[in-house]
Amino acid sequence: MDFESLRRILDHLPVSFFWKDCNSVYQGCNASFARDAGIASPAGILGLQDQDLPGRSAEAEVYQRRDRRVIDTGEPLLGYEELRHFADGREVMIVGNLLPFHGPDGAVAGIVGFYSDVSDQRATESRLRLLSLHDQLTGLPNQALIRDRLEQAILVAAQRQRALGLICLDIDNFQKVNNTFGHAIGDEVLRLVSARLQQTLFNADTVGRMGGDVFVLLLRDLQHRDDISLVLRKIRQSLARPFMVEGHEVFVTVSLGVALYPEDGEDAASLLKNANTALHKAKEAGRNSYRLYSPAMNASALMWLGLESQLRKAIELGQMEIYFQPQIDAVSGALAGAEALVRWRHPELGLVSPADFIPLAEDTGLIVDIGTWVLNETCVRAKAWHDLGLPLPRVAVNLSPLQFRHQDLVTTVCAALLDSGLDPSLLELEITESAVMHDVDKAADILRYFREMGVRVAIDDFGTGYSSLSHLKKFPITLLKIDRTFIEGTDCDGEDNRAIVTAIIAMGHRLGIKVLAEGVETAAQSEFLRGSGCDELQGYLFSRPLPSAKFQAFLEGLSAAG
Ligand code: C2E
Ligand code: MG
Ligand code: MG
To answer: Which domains does the chain have, with CATH numbers?
Structure first.
């Protein structure tokens, strides 16, 4: 076979191919090589050298030195990998081979070279490498890479005798964002949060995602322990602005836990563990706050970890209790109703507030059982009080969004009413905005059932969620409960809050819904609310939530007085 026939075969291979004589003068090539080198056709290459070829002139010296080596030693050069800039502007990663060929006399007569483009393959490999160390959703370093970076940073900090800061960050009630808007928007919020965190920190600092809604920030080269509070402030400020996602304005707050090297741990594992403990403390303290780790936290953090299994058994063990808080008619001052509020009497911790264990119960799904228990118990007690002739116009039970979505709620409520014999009109169910906004149509169906049964429905914590007024109109709601954060300050400098409260009352009345203010603590607040036309009031000013027996005594007192 002559060279020309051979070349024609080579033209069809996905490989670039050439041969040169002993002086690095080209003797031939295939079409693919001609294109890379920047000449019109393979025939044109005869007699040229690398410096004559547009795609090779820049590196001509390198190529010729390499040719020389192969020719002088007679040894092939196989599998070298390098980046090439081709004549058509492509930048390509190649794997190449150079082999000597011999003349009839047995001496080296020239060299054959061929290479193939492995860019796609390398890109895939590096993407895979990247993926295994990066979180797919946000592109941030994942847990494995964070640990690695932390270990490196500790080594450097130890050498330079510098401090390091490790921050664990958790988005408060992120479940609520998912429940309200769905997971696609939840994911987008996570991406936007990660972008803001990256903008906020210096480049030398690492932002990573541990999973879920938990992020980790590694601060290198802290000059001073106090610098950390500056960073915490910056983080919270940058996340305070709302996130715009598909036309929704989403607000988030975060809880932060901090551990410092070297005082809070000298290795990656203990720093991560302690920052996480501090984070849990911040969440326990009511979220939207931060905590610096202290060794005293360890004991209670362990307790926190054991809490889930204890909560599972709490109902069986009779550790759950229901307190009742009176609700007052703003005009007459008469009792309008009472809200049932669950408590957990923990053998060692004492009375645990629902603010502390409801989030855990929601995360674990235990809230469904707890909620059903509260509903049944409350109906039984209200029926008993009614039978005693005590003046309780209605009793309210809180429903978690989870119950609203995952349970055959209508059946559960029917059963509670039938079993207890309580008149449905004496029962009020408190739901939050996020529970109904998740699936508006389904929610409207369920609420319509309740109305047909004669059960009342209140929207709890109104103003803190994301409900749209046009949707509220669709629901058969009997009461709007203004969240207590809006009531705070209405008695002094809370000009904004006063405006919001007045607007909610006006809006409720336009829709034919009564309005209750939660968390009324001072006479001045009560005066303002009464003056603004608020229908009902609930708060420490009138009474704290009372244990069942005390509440019964309270009703008996009213009954005797009336
Ligand atoms: P919520 O439904 O908004 O209940 C009102 C909360 O405000 C109660 O806290 C009550 O004790 C408190 N509160 C009442 N008046 C005042 C006041 O004047 N000032 C202040 N600062 N607070 C006042 P609690 O009992 O700790 O309940 C917290 C939350 O836990 C409840 O908020 C509710 O969302 C949830 N929760 C309570 N019981 C249940 C339940 O049985 N099921 C469900 N799903 N959630 C419950
Ligand atoms: Mg409530
Ligand atoms: Mg409330």
So the answer is: 3-122 (3.30.450.20), 134-293 (3.30.70.270), 304-561 (3.20.20.450)
pTM: 0.57
Is the CB of 371 inside a 6 Å radius of any atom of ligand 1?
Answer: yes
pLDDT per position as a tens digit, 62-83: 999 999 999 999 999 988 888 8
Lookup: tokens for 318? 């009779």
pLDDT, one tens digit per residue, over 79-127 is: 888 888 898 888 888 999 999 999 899 899 999 999 999 888 887 777 6
Q: For ligand 1, what atom is nearest to the CA of residue 322?
A: 41
Pocket test for ligand 1, best of 321, 341, 412, 542 (most atoms within 8 A of CB): 341
> Ligand 1, residues 395, 430, 518, 536: which to mutate, most atoms within 8 A of Cβ?
518
Q: Is-contact 119 66, C-beta < 8 A? A: no
Q: In sequence order, which residues have a C-beta less than 8 Å from that of residue 184 and are 6 or more positions away?
A: none
Going 228 to 231 to 237 to 239, the CA torsion angle's sign is negative
**Residue 394 alpha carbon to ligand 2 centre in Å:** 14
Helix (H, G, I), strand (E, B) or coil at 218: strand
